[in-house]
Amino acid sequence: LGRMFDGIEYRGSGQSVVEELAEYAGVPVFNGLTDEWHPTQMLADALTMTEHAPGKPLEELVFAYLGD
């Protein structure tokens, strides 16, 4: 896949699968969602918050994480 793409976002099942993909891909692999982690969700949440608070810089927004 690394020959066709500059980066890969993997959204799928096991964490071990995305780690193996990252090991062999040859390009950056972003974890979009696995059974253990969802690290890119905060980026999407930050974008949504800035869209709903026009004119307010990201540094002035308050974030709270609730969950498992």
From TrEMBL:
Keywords: Transferase. Its EC number is 2.1.3.3. It comes from the Bacteria. One of its GO terms (biological process) is citrulline biosynthetic process. GO terms for molecular function: amino acid binding; ornithine carbamoyltransferase activity. Residues 1-51 form the Aspartate/ornithine carbamoyltransferase carbamoyl-P binding domain. Reversibly catalyzes the transfer of the carbamoyl group from carbamoyl phosphate (CP) to the N(epsilon) atom of ornithine (ORN) to produce L-citrulline. This is Ornithine carbamoyltransferase subunit F.
